[in-house]
Amino acid sequence: MKYVISLVKEIVKKRKMILDLALADFRKRFVGSYFGIVWMFLQPLVTVLIYWFIFGEYGMKTVPPVPNATYVVWLVPGLVPWFFYSEALNSITGCLQEYSYLVKKVVFQVEILPVIKLISCLFVHIIFTAIMMALYAAYRQPVFATWIQILYYTFAAAMLALAFGYFTSAVNVFFKDMANIVGICLQFGIWMTPIMYDEAIFTSRNPWIGTVLKLNPFYYIVAGYRDSMLTGDWFWRRPTMTLYFWGVTIVVMLVGLRMFKRLRPHFSDVL
């Protein structure tokens, strides 16, 4: 626990440096690219269009479980947090190799590198959240006070990504296949989370599948984004899921930090 407290103090103390490094990391992604920042929007946009075409009005005609909501309006609040979470976890997993020159510095607190990567991804997420709200305005969706709740669910998604990221980034230094394992798990995870489909297509015949889906902590994030944007429900309407999510996140965070602390003295020997 002392390690966690000291880490939090270090993050607060060096918040300006962390923000500056995160901004530099954000800009670095598009240096040398002909289209630059356009690529940041292109891949997610193509993903949304593909899912919309296959599952929406032109394909399987999936009916959203929210009255008077079109498929794309229901889809986007599920995909936006997933884009953030998956990008953050992938980026954090490889951050120690990417910034190996900082890891080798004795005076540098390497525990803040995952935080830097997380904030860099957060900049992108803020832009996509603004686009999501613009889409809702274009479709003339009602504005709820619960839209402010997106801040809470973004924080929740960030903590989940950081919790897993501390573990995967530490292991990835010694076991290079970890990055590939994370990629496969994310591919599997997007289908184990009811983002593109209504879970009722399974639970109507096999109710136990609903329980299995809810064991995935990211289910809480997707449900929360849709509650906030579409139905106007506050997070305390899901007390059991809230407690379960934070319980899992805290346990994973403690395990991840313990692994990071144990392997940290050997990082510079391998990188």
How is this structure best summarized?
This protein is mainly alpha-helical.
Could you characterize the architecture of this molecule?
There is one protein chain. With 271 residues, this protein is mainly alpha-helical. It has one domain (2-270). Helix content is 72%, strand content 0%. It has 14 helices and no strands. It has helices spanning 2-13, 15-28, 38-55, 71-93, 95-98, 100-103, 113-138, 150-174, 178-192, 200-203, 208-214, 218-231, 239-263, 267-270. α4 (71-93) runs parallel beside α8 (150-174) and α8 runs antiparallel to α12. The model has no long low-confidence stretch (mean pLDDT 87).
List the helices and strands and how they pair.
Blueprint: H1 2-13, H2 15-28, H3 38-55, H4 71-93, H5 95-98, H6 100-103, H7 113-138, H8 150-174, H9 178-192, H10 200-203, H11 208-214, H12 218-231, H13 239-263, H14 267-270
The largest pleated sheet is described as: none
Instruction: Determine Rg (CA atoms, Å).
Output: 19 Å
| Large-scale geometry | globular
* Strand coverage percent: under 5%
What's the N-to-C terminus distance?
A: 28 Å
Q: Count up the domains.
A: 1
Structural class: mainly alpha
* Total DSSP E strands: 0
Query: Mean pLDDT, nearest integer?
Result: 87
Order of helices and strands: HHHHHHHHHHHHHH
pLDDT < 50 stretches:
none
| Alpha plus pi helix count | 14
Tell me roughly what share of residues is in helical segments: over 70%
